[in-house]
């Protein structure tokens, strides 16, 4: 529409007349009364496609009864329409299939569905949900799939689809305009370090520093605002893990995908059931992870003092820890860590070697590494690389001191050795970009060869 203030995202939607819609509603009601779709039918083994195959005969018979002159193609379209509208998520299913969409939001039945596009940002779609009851129905079937419920007494729900997409749902009157559903899509192809370099999210030099730190088991925090790419950055730095170490990851909702070459045990928190029992918290999993002989621990997000204390204690006892934190810069990260609700004593923060701060320009939608900083012995940050926004590039603002001292102390490397190693890593990264090696599993195999001494830089890499 010419008066729209934001760009539109249009999909082809089956155009059904009002008269046909009335008939389809009657068919749907008769189908539901005749066929009992149990919880087993909606279990993990059954997708919308298997349900469609199972019940298409019954639906076809009803279509022939009320619309006897339909051709085969139209019958197939209407069968699929009835299944997706009443058992699936309707036209939202079409949006879920677009890999370029990061977020899908239903705000109310009176507004169109909105999406966040990887390239174009927020867009208004031509998809509408017919009623508030239908939005609540969608939220109910999402929750039922994983044993959660949303009711007037429990009007907030965090859940996930079987595809791994994160879902938040709210009911009116908590959300005053109407019922809402927010779906954050799980990346079908996880971000890799070469994707980050290709998109100019991070520089080769910064990536080489992160690789060096991870190789030598230095702990690292990733901070940033909402949607800045913290979890994506966490996934990319995991590309550098060696294959001969045990890695435990802890998340509220599974988002990470690590190379299949790694010795990796992913774990996930669990909310309490409707009776308030069975909860497994982030702290429970962090404490338990320390009993699983981990070499490295990954935590989706630090939120509370208790889990932060356990993680910093783990760093002090020789474990490498990698986690994300909501904070807009390196300095804000220190402030957030040392004040409530986390409230860690500042001297303890020196257990972290590096902080990588992520940033998203909300006007352009571009995500960038804002800062890479080392932590000094007194807990203060020292920014090494910082984004020059005007020229869209990371520039060196300080030379490392504490990181070099730590590496020299524990590895015996000289400053010249470290410089040569960084140069070699940068050459490997440029070669990976040139060869368009973006698959995390393929990168994991390259890292395994590198750590085994089988990736000979001078012989293989000419970039």
Characterization of this structure:
This protein starts with 7 loop residues before the first strand and ends with a helix. The model has no long low-confidence stretch (mean pLDDT 89). The strands form two sheets. Strands 10-9-11-12-8-13-14-15-16 form a nine-stranded mixed β-sheet, sandwiched between helices. A seven-stranded mixed β-sheet has the order 1-4-3-2-7-6-5. With 463 residues, it is of the alpha/beta class. It is elongated and about 85 Å long. Helices cover 37% and strands 19% of the residues. α9 packs parallel to α10.
Task: Offer a quick outline of the entry.
The protein has 15 helices and 16 strands.
Mean pLDDT: 89
What is the tally of helical segments?
15
Q: What is the topology, as strand order, of the major beta sheet?
A: 10-9-11-12-8-13-14-15-16
What fraction of residues sit in β-strands?
A: 15-25%
Total E-strand runs: 16
Tell me, what is the CATH class of the largest domain? Alpha Beta
Looking at this structure, what is the CATH superfamily of the largest domain?
P-loop containing nucleotide triphosphate hydrolases
Shape: elongated
Please bin the fraction of helical residues: 25-40%
* Domain unit count: 3
The CATH topology label of the largest domain is Rossmann fold
**How far apart, in Å, are the first and last alpha carbons?**
49 Å
Rg, Cα atoms, Å = 25 Å
Structural class: alpha/beta
Low-confidence runs of at least 5 consecutive residues: none
Main beta-sheet strand count, sense and barrel state: 9 strands, mixed
The CATH architecture of the largest domain would be 3-Layer(aba) Sandwich
């Amino acid at each position: 529409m010419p008066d729209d203030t934001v760009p539109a995202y249009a999909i082809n939607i089956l155009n059904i007349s009002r008269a046909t819609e009335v008939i389809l509603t009657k068919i749907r009601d008769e189908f539901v009364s005749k066929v009992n779709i149990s919880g087993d039918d909606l279990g993990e083994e059954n997708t919308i496609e298997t349900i469609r195959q199972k019940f298409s005969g019954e639906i076809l018979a009803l279509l022939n009864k009320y619309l006897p002159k339909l051709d085969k193609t139209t019958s197939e379209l209407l069968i699929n329409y009835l299944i997706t509208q009443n058992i699936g998520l309707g036209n939202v299913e079409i949006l879920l299939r677009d890999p370029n969409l990061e977020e899908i939001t239903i705000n109310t039945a009176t507004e169109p569905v909105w999406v966040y596009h990887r390239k174009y940002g927020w867009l208004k779609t031509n998809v509408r949900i017919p009623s508030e009851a239908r939005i609540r129905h969608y939220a109910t079937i999402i929750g039922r799939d994983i044993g959660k419920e949303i009711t007037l007494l429990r009007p907030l729900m965090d859940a996930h689809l079987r595809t791994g997409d994160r879902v938040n749902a709210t009911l009116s009157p908590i959300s005053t305009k109407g019922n809402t559903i927010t779906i954050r899509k799980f990346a079908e192809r996880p971000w890799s370090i070469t994707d980050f370099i290709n998109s100019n999210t991070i520089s080769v030099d910064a990536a080489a520093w992160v690789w060096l730190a991870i190789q030598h088991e230095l702990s690292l925090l990733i901070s940033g605002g909402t949607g800045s790419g913290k979890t994506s950055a966490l996934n990319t730095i995991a590309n550098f893990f060696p294959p001969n170490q045990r890695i435990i990851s802890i998340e509220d909702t599974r988002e990470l995908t690590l190379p299949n070459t790694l010795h990796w045990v992913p774990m996930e928190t669990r909310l309490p059931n409707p009776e308030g029992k069975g909860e497994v918290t982030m702290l429970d999993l962090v404490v338990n992870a320390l009993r699983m002989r981990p070499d490295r621990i990954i935590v989706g997000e630090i939120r509370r003092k208790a889990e932060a204390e356990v993680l910093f204690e783990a760093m002090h006892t020789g474990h490498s820890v990698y986690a994300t934190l909501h904070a807009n810069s390196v300095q804000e990260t220190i402030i957030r860590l040392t004040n409530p609700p986390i409230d860690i004593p500042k001297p303890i923060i020196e257990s972290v070697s590096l902080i990588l701060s992520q940033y998203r320009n909300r006007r352009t939608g571009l995500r960038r590494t804002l800062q890479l900083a080392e932590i000094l012995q007194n807990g203060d940050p020292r920014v090494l690389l910082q984004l020059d926004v005007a020229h869209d590039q990371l520039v060196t603002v300080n030379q490392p001191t504490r990181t070099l001292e730590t590496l020299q102390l524990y590895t015996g490397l000289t400053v010249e050795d470290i410089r040569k190693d960084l140069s070699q890593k940068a050459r490997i990264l440029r070669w990976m970009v040139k060869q368009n090696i973006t698959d995390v599993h393929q990168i994991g195999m390259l890292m395994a060869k590198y750590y085994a001494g089988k990736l000979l830089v001078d012989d293989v890499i000419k970039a």
